[in-house]
Amino acid sequence: MLPERMAFDVVSEVSQETCEALADCLNLFTKQEGVRNLKLEHEQEKNKILSEALETLATEHHELEQSLVKGSPPLSIISEEQFYDAVSDSESEKSLSGFETTAAYSLEDSMDSKDTITSSVSEEKVCGSGESLSNGIKKHRTSLPSPMFSRNDFSIWSILRKCIGMELSKITMPVIFNEPLSFLQRLTEYMEHTYLIHKASSLSSTTERMQCVAAFAVSAVASQWERTGKPFNPLLGETYELIRDDLGFRLLSEQVSHHPPISAFYAEGLNNDFVFHGSIYPKLKFWGKSVEAEPKGTMTLELLEHSEAYTWTNPTCCVHNIIVGKLWIEQYGNVEITNHKTGEKCVLSFKPCGLFGKELHKVEGYIQDKSKKKLCALYGKWTECLYSVDPATFEAYKKNDKKSAEEKKSSKQEPDEMPLPDSESVYVIPGSILLWKITPRPPNSAQMYNFTSFAMALNELDKEMESVIPKTDCRLRPDIRAMENGEIDLASEEKKRLEEKQRTARKNRSKSEEDWKTRWFHQGPNPYTGTQDWLYSGNYWDRNYFNLPDIY
């Protein structure tokens, strides 16, 4: 009995010591949790203070900009209607109307010129004949089923204040900040001015072909003017097709990756005169007062009749005044277009706005041969037009313009005498050739998410088309369709449902160690640049759609 009693005492003592140790650990953990909670509260308070300071700083900076531009007193002593924004005098995009920059054209010399490249027939093609068959629709709609919602009661800042410096593709935004298009449809807007590609194919001069390709590259971003609504993020495996007999092309796109989000597209001329393809990875960053979108990816245009290939990357797009003021968009950065057959290059500079807005929307650059000799100069605005002119004439104009600007600055010191960008037109240098002019937006554009006529038709759907397109086509997405129809609550619910469905599918693939396989594109080197790209695999237009993923 004695040994058993001793063993019992030992176990009891050890148990007691263990209990005391566990109690000490629990007490320690409790103290540590209290310290962590205190630190968390301090961090949250610091974050709140910094956010409020940033908002105050942004407001003061915005007021200072306005006073410098107009020579007016700070915002605190003037009304909302009086202050001038660097882009426009229209209503705030936060109240959904967008900015309006309608510049007057001085086209007399150019429009009467026999050398004008853009023909009247091509201009008519941009608007569309309205009678051509396109995916079963003979006449394209000119309006959406419902106008856009007011964003007055919603603040982008309230969402983005927690995301400074973060990758925005992983941030879920409320549906109110969207426009009723998928990003796959948004990138299809590159094709609005396809007549410039057809024109390039018909020209015999390599320099004239480069001019048209450069005009196409500039026109491809023109639809982004005033479009501060965010397109819906495509779901993995989502597709979009568009056939436009009136514009002479058909296009296919597919969301080939979700993280990072990559969209691949392939377009071809219906007369086998061109192929245009590429992949876009829109890398988004929030920098306090602005959201910047860098469209990583290479654009490749092949003119088949001339066995030529052109490649370029798009400029960076930036949405300003996220915290306070009127939302406005600018494009900036250098775009280098290379003709891989001749070695010719077109180097375009998309000008940043600058303090007083004098460079707002401006684009200029040169076409050079392979020895870097300047063959012609290009200039204009990506929101309006593009011209070409002799390099010597352009440089003489630039020199005189700089001289007159300096004289004006020295002779007129009053801030209210400074020219405002909205009042300036694109001055047409004598001897210039008009390459491209933007198609006017429809009268109801401001109520329809600032869509162009081309964008207005991208999501239209009828029964005949529905029986032809695959079930992955984003025309069939219920959240986009609900938003287009004005059902904002349903759109929000469907958006959340689809996102959750996509997450569940990804988890299931991860458990089964199954890799996602793209259907219409595959990775490979770009045949002209050698960089990694997404290339069309073929067979989409055979209409043999089997084993497609259930993504909606």
TrEMBL record:
Key words, A-Z: Coiled coil, Lipid transport, Lipid-binding, Transport
Region (Disordered): 399-423, 494-515
Pfam (any one): Oxysterol_BP
Stretches with biased composition (Basic and acidic residues): 399-415, 494-503
A GO BP annotation: lipid transport
UniProt keyword annotation of RNA-binding present: no
Coiled coil (UniProt feature): 40-67
Record has Cell inner membrane as a keyword: no
Top-rank taxon, per record: Eukaryota
GO CC annotation terms, alphabetical: cytosol; perinuclear endoplasmic reticulum; plasma membrane
GO MF terms held by the record: cholesterol binding
Family stated for the protein in its record: Belongs to the OSBP family.
Protein name as annotated: Oxysterol-binding protein
Organism of this sequence: Buteo japonicus
